[in-house]
UniProtKB/TrEMBL annotation:
Protein name: Na(+)-translocating NADH-quinone reductase subunit B
Membrane-spanning parts: 14-32, 71-90, 102-121, 127-147
Organism: Tenacibaculum geojense
Keywords, in A-Z order: Membrane, Transmembrane, Transmembrane helix
Length: 160
């Protein structure tokens, strides 16, 4: 993996600074279905489902929507990308190899879970799986990569 596609290493701290609180707030709003009324706005929307069913002739319109979940999703995705794709302080070929293997592993695990979900989860529960699936590739990658780096550092300390 070419290192020139990675962010500078200090972006990882910024990503963690945004990721941790947005993930906590996101989980709280998900479980408690919290939607503050001051975030209700009229927003532009695309009506694909209604057009396919023949219920709406307009492709674009305005809907009243609470934008908390959109804001949190943007923060989580943006910060996860910063955390996942920031250089390590000492970025070498072995770190690049670990990065690539972790990314491949994360994609395999993510799509394994998705295949399992296609077979055994239905209706509205499947929608939740698909929503969470947007974040899990990056989450699995971050966990696997940092675990491998931790093990690498542990073995380096053990050899000393």
């Amino acid at each position: 993996m070419k290192v020139n596609f990675l962010f500078p290493s200090n972006f990882k701290r910024l990503g963690l600074f945004i990721l941790i609180p947005s993930s906590i707030i996101g989980l709280v709003t998900l479980f408690y279905e919290y939607e503050p009324t001051f975030l209700d706005f009229n927003m532009p929307a695309i009506f694909i489902d209604e057009i396919l069913r023949g219920e709406n002739k307009s492709f674009i319109g305005i809907v009243k929507n609470n934008i908390l979940d959109e804001i949190l999703a943007i923060f989580i995705i943006f910060s996860s990308v910063l955390v996942a794709f920031s250089k390590e302080r000492l970025e070498d070929e072995y770190i690049s190899k670990i990065r690539l293997e972790s990314l491949v592993w994360a994609v395999y695990v993510n799509y394994g879970i998705l295949l399992f979900s296609f077979l055994f989860i239905y209706d509205f529960s499947f929608l939740w799986v698909m929503i969470l699936n947007m974040f899990t590739v990056l989450l699995f990658f971050i966990i696997k990569f940092n675990w491998q780096i931790f093990k690498l550092k542990q073995s380096a300390n053990y050899e000393k």
